[in-house]
Specification:
The complex is a heterodimer of chains A (308) and B (251).
Chain A (H helix, E strand, L loop, with lengths): L3 E12 L2 E12 L2 E5 L6 H8 L7 E6 L2 E2 L4 H6 L1 E4 L11 H11 L5 H11 L15 H13 L5 E5 L7 H18 L2 E5 L3 H7 L2 E6 L2 E7 H9 L2 E6 L2 H9 L4 E7 L2 E6 L2 H14 L4 E6 L4 H9 L5
Parallel strand pairs in A: 3-8, 3-9, 6-7, 7-8
Antiparallel strand pairs in A: 1-2, 1-4, 4-5, 9-10, 11-13, 11-14, 12-13
Helix pairs in contact in A: 3-4, 8-11
Chain B lengths: L7 H14 L4 H14 L12 H4 L2 H26 L1 H5 L6 H24 L1 H5 L7 H28 L2 H18 L8 H16 L14 H29 L4
Classes of the chains: A alpha/beta (308), B mainly alpha (251).
The complex binds adenosine-5'-triphosphate and magnesium ion.
Amino acid sequence: MNTIIVNTTNLVKSFGKVVALNGLNMQAPKGISGFVGKNGSGKTTTIGILLGLIKPNGGNATVFGLDCWQDSFEIRRRLGVMHEINAYPGSFSGRRFLEHVAKLYGVSQVNQTVDALLKDVGLAEAKDKPIKAYSAGMLKRLGLAQALIGNPELAILDEPTANIDPLGRLTLLDKIKEMHNNHDTSFLIATHILSDLEKICNWLIIIDSGKIADQGNIHNLTEKYSASIYKVEVSNPQLFVAAVQKLGAVDRVWEENDKVFCKVNNPEVFCEQIPKIVIELKLQLKSFQQTLGTLEEIYTQTVGEKRR
Amino acid sequence: MSRSRPRTFSRLVLWEIEGCLSLPILSLIVASAIIAVLVQSSSPRDFANSYINLYDGTSIIFLILALVASTLFSHSFAGNIGNGGLKRMLSYPVRRWQVFLSKVIATTLIVFGAYASAFTLNLYLSSLSPLEPLFYVSLFTMFLHLLLVCTVSIGISLLTGSEIISTMVSFLLVLGLDNAFDFRSYFSSQGRFTYIFGYFEQLTHLDSFFMLTNSPVTVEEVAISIAIPILVTTVGLTTAFIYFTRKMEID
Ligand SMILES: Nc1ncnc2c1ncn2[C@@H]1O[C@H](COP(=O)(O)OP(=O)(O)OP(=O)(O)O)[C@@H](O)[C@H]1O
Ligand SMILES: [Mg+2]
């Protein structure tokens, strides 16, 4: 299960003076991969390169082992895409539009395929309405449907769940999971909604300023980041931070909402030292705990670093 | 999943046509074509020479044709770049040349279809025989004019990616050329039409009295008039095609 299907090495892309990608080394294996990063960190640009829409200035990008610029057509036959910006032909009905797309993919039983998809993404009732009458959430659903036509090996989704109501979101996530389980479809999902990823992803790619901040199996990442972060609540955080900063066992200390977070390189020494500091400074220790690994924490630690 | 071999290109052309036909501006296009034909001065002439009506008033047809064609081509290219439709389209398993040519073909067919059908009204209005050769000569010139506008609009569309700029600039460019040069110049559409029309009139109507040019039209003159739009179109569209298929980045 560890075949790499998306691979980039030292990918560089600039738009005039703006450097969008700055030596991106990204790998995504088969499975469901989350692709996260701040606004403007380069997610959409990366996706554009993977699809052969944008030509990189340097480096190398492959999907299924094929070169993204040279063999773009081969790649696109095997994947489905949902872009960040919806641009579907407004005068077509959702159904007519999907039929067209299905034919481009050479799907054999167009009607059945389209009807089933429409039902799956929850558009069965709106299928005969013209697309221009769709709501933002319905457009996202349509986007997902057209990305999944023809059971692609890989579906690239840019912001798939934005604008979708909470229940609809769960349905869509289920659909993604189901596609993965039943058809072995892999996903690369760029999103800002980490809680969505938490439910379905097994791989996480974190991008920051056009570079990989970290990537890997979600369990490994969770362990890596949560094991070394401690959350401490004390009566005088400022005083505490000043003292903790001097400890060799601590890499980094920051304060958030009156709580102190410590990134620790030697937990044993750290746990030994904290009570001493508390007593020395005559502080009141309210809580002391290792943080639980959520994607949000991984994200904050990797991408948030520069902010502090 | 069993897959049939997709006939991608013909599908794309049909899709483009279907998209064009459902545009709200389409009825406007058809109306404009009919009005353009009706507006021309069909001053009563004696029956034998009523084919001259085909010449009179074509300048307004060329003008409106230029407006409509630059609108539609700019919509099809720049509009699609701007709204992300092209990005979506090129993410499907289609080749870039297929998308480019399907747009050119579909839009040309629609505009020419509308204008050619409206233009046939002339046959009735001027009581001409459907076999009147100058009718087809006029249609042919109209087609050349359309190709020219098509080339300019696509070029500017790809350069600017802006629908409104592309529409305006390509229309104004054609309009400007037609205004700057008169009906005896190769650089105005009316001028080229005069040479082409005059030449074929001499050939087909021996009692020709139509003499816009001071002397009979020579073969060179008509050749140049035909060659200019064809040359511009060939060079322009080829350049645009190569740029679109090999270089262009869509983001
Ligand atoms: N066509 C373009 N011209 C100029 N700059 C661009 C262009 N496309 C992207 N950029 C710049 O490249 C950087 C990366 O943009 P990109 O759209 O890839 O970010 P993103 O991670 O998708 O952001 P978001 O989360 O907001 O969607 C940004 O600084 C952006 O301003
Ligand atoms: Mg983006």
